[in-house]
Amino acid sequence: MDNILVIGSSGQIGSELVMALRKIYGNEHVFATDIKQPTKEIRESGPFQILDVLDFKNLMHFVVRYKITQIYNLAAVLSGNAEKIPLQAWDINMKALMNTLEVARQSDAKKLFWPSSIAVFGPTTPRYNTPQLTVMEPNTVYGISKLAGERWGEYYYRRYNVDFRSVRYPGLISYKTEPGGGTTDYAVEIFYDALAKGTYQCFLKEDTALPMMFMDDAIENTIKLMEVDSSRLTHRSAYNMAGISFDPKQLAEEIKKHIPAFTITYKPDFRQPIAESWPASIDDSVSQQDWGLKTTYDLPKMTKVMLEKIREKQKK
Ligand code: SER
To answer: How far is the CA of 84 from the centre of ligand 1 (A)?
Structure first.
């Protein structure tokens, strides 16, 4: 029986991933940990403990004590926030990964998921239909840490047999827990403001297209990658994930179909150059072949669900 540790369980991905894993593996087998308090749902459905991934001894102790066999490490400082504290962000992002790689090497928790990002690509990468293997010269602290992380993950796989698996997430769109400090966050904020104020001021220009994905698709495919037989994986860095590509103007038009009076204004800030350095669309055919990546949300379906769910939340 697998025992799974989720690090960063109070964040945007963790708060949904824990619940999905508990459904599959049983509540008591999925250990949620974070340095922040979790959602009510997580606290009430199974084990939660405050745990700092930067504290190697405690992390190792936890893994041995609870006989952990799989780790999902989701702790990270996102792209926008990382630019404000470059050295600290580098330290945190790398230390968090290296601690889990070392724990995996030294314990029975050999299977490790760690998210990479479209931020591993940079201004010299082909911007449209970015392939799995291509030029990677990221110019943000976050992107540099993700690219270095991919290389370390593959290294630990080859050298120490750590079963490292990763995907390059596009911007993730969800309604349960808000993201914090990312460049793709506009595509979540816009829904809250559209419903609460009828207007949104966007920090990216109207034609800045980026790849995005609805959280349900992201979670389902993450678990799929973790469950597939190891022999099928031809890449041990991180797999491309395309999702849906759109720009702020297209998203605003889609929202207007539901809220006709909705207006949007544009005031690009320091995140504009970050977004411009990333791909506009991704080719994920290798992921489809290797482990069966499949998504079901397009822009209209995602918009409809986001508006419905956030409206329900705002009513409560
Ligand atoms: N969504 C992330 C960010 O914007 C990218 O991985 O930082």
So the answer is: 15
